[in-house]
Design goal:
303 residues; alpha+beta; HIT family, subunit A; three-stranded mixed beta sheet
Length: 303
C-alpha cells in the first residue's frame, strides 16, 4: 500500500521509523557497523566512521556490483525498503546499505542517469522531504562524486549527525557564509564551492520552490565554472556534489573520487568521512581532512 507525502503531509518520519524496524527484522536492511573517531583540523571536528575488516570487504563488494555489473535496484525496488511516494516523479526508499540510521534515497520512478542534470522535480522532492523533518539532503553527481548507482537518486539523513555536538562539523562555517548573503564562498575552506541561503517559502510551496531552486542551481553551476559535456551522445555535467538543508544549499565541483585511500562523497564537504580500516584513518589524520577535500574538489578561484 502506497503512502503519499502530498496526500498525507507530516507522516514521513513515522514511516521512516516503522519501515526501518520492519526492514531490519526481515533482513532487508543491511547496515554497516562502524566506530566513530574525531579528527580535528583548523578547529573543525571532522567525523570519521571506521568500518571493521569484514564490513569493509562487504562494502567493496557491494560497490563493485552496483556500478560495474549494473542491475538497476530501483526498477523494481525492494518492497520492504519502500517508505513513501514523494511526488508523481519520485519515491522514498531506505538505503539498504547504510552507515547512518534512517538514511533515505529519493529516487526517480523512471530511469534517469545519475550524471544527468538535476530538475525542478528533483528539487521539489527534496523540499517535500526536508519540510517533514530536519535533515541534510545531498546529491553525488557521478562516480567521481561518490555515487554508487547509475539510477538518479538524491539522499537524505536526519540531523544532527550521530556523535556530533552540532548539526554538522562544518555547519558553523557554512552558516557564516550564508550570513554574507547572495552566492558566497568561505575563504577558510580550501576547495571550490558556492553557498547560498534557502528561502523558507520553498519548504511551504515545494513546487514553486523546485523551480526557484533550479534557477539557483544554474547560477551555482555557472559560478563554479562547470559546463556541459557530451558523453556517448548525452549532455551531462562534470562531477559535483550538491548539499541542501532547510537553511542553505552548497555546490562543490569534483575532480577526484578519492585522495590516497580516502574516498570522498558529498558528506565529506560537511565534515563526515568514512575509513575502511585503521590504516585509512591514519592516512586521513596524516594528510588532514581539509587537504583531502581540497584535492578531491577543484582549486578555489583567486580574487
Amino acid at each position: 500500500m502506497s503512502t503519499s507525502l502530498i496526500d498525507q503531509p507530516g507522516i514521513l518520519w513515522k514511516r521512516v521509523v516503522e519501515t526501518t524496524e520492519s526492514a531490519r527484522a526481515s533482513g532487508a536492511l543491511q547496515s554497516f557497523i562502524t566506530r566513530l573517531e574525531v579528527v580535528e583540523q583548523e578547529r573543525i571536528p571532522f567525523q570519521v566512521r571506521i568500518l571493521t575488516a569484514i564490513e569493509a570487504a562487504r562494502a567493496q563488494s557491494e560497490a563493485s556490483i552496483r556500478w560495474g555489473h549494473y542491475v538497476d535496484p530501483f526498477q523494481p525496488w525492494e518492497p520492504t525498503l519502500y517508505v513513501a511516494d514523494v511526488s508523481a516523479t519520485h519515491a522514498c526508499l531506505l538505503n539498504k546499505f547504510n552507515v547512518v540510521d534512517h538514511h533515505l534515497l529519493i529516487v526517480t520512478r523512471a530511469f534517469e542517469h545519475q550524471m544527468s542534470p538535476l530538475t525542478a522535480a528533483d528539487f521539489e522532492s527534496a523540499w517535500r522531504c526536508l519540510a517533514e523533518y530536519e535533515g541534510l539532503a545531498f546529491y553525488n553527481a557521478g562516480r567521481i562524486a561518490g555515487a554508487s548507482q547509475k539510477h538518479k537518486h538524491l539522499q537524505m539523513i536526519p540531523l544532527p549527525l550521530p556523535g556530533s555536538d552540532t548539526d554538522l562539523p562544518l555547519g558553523a562555517w557554512i552558516s557564516h557564509t550564508v550570513a554574507c548573503g547572495g552566492l558566497s564562498e568561505n575563504r577558510d575552506l580550501p576547495f571550490r564551492h558556492v553557498i547560498s541561503g534557502v528561502d523558507p517559502q520553498w519548504l511551504v510551496d515545494p513546487v514553486s520552490g523546485g523551480q526557484e531552486a533550479l534557477s539557483l542551481y544554474y547560477e551555482m553551476r555557472a559560478r563554479s565554472g562547470l559546463r556541459y559535456e557530451f558523453t556517448a551522445g548525452a549532455r551531462r555535467l562534470p562531477p559535483y556534489n550538491l548539499l541542501l538543508t532547510r537553511n542553505w544549499i552548497m555546490f562543490v565541483p569534483r575532480c577526484e573520487a578519492s585522495v590516497g585511500p580516502a574516498e570522498v562523497n558529498a558528506l565529506g564537504f560537511v565534515g563526515a568521512l568514512l575509513a575502511r580500516d585503521d590504516c585509512e584513518l591514519r592516512a586521513i589524520r596524516d594528510s588532514g581532512p581539509l587537504t583531502i577535500l581540497e584535492k578531491a574538489g577543484l582549486p578555489r578561484k583567486l580574487g
